[in-house]
Task: structure prediction
Amino acid sequence: MEALRILIVDDEHEWVSALAERLGLRGFAATGVTDGEAALARLHADAFDVALVDVKMPGLGGLDLVRAIKSQWPELPVILLTGHSSAPDAERGLALGAWACLLKPVQIDDLVRAVRAAVHGEDTP
Result:
């Protein structure tokens, strides 16, 4: 069975690296980028099973990235991650097609469950 391919998009480089490493230790193939433009470039170049997207990023923010992803790759599940408990942003993200919005710092086991559920088309958490 092939490892699920995860694209991590967050402007905090250290967090992206740590999360990619932790997901890798759990058998996922995780790739990280630090801005929305780089995420779109990676999506054009490679196939992914799910995208983990930070809501608040400079430049192309998470909500705009969800909109772009859903217009070009409508079947790709997107899980929004936010360090800010902003209900309006979460609601907007879900309305744009995000599968879920999780609050950082997210427990790795909760994130793994959400990734698997999103990829397999299960109900949102």
User: Anything to note?
Assistant: DSSP finds five helices and five strands in the chain. The beta strands are 5-9, 29-33, 50-54, 78-82, 100-103. The CA atoms of residues 15 and 54 lie 11 Å apart.
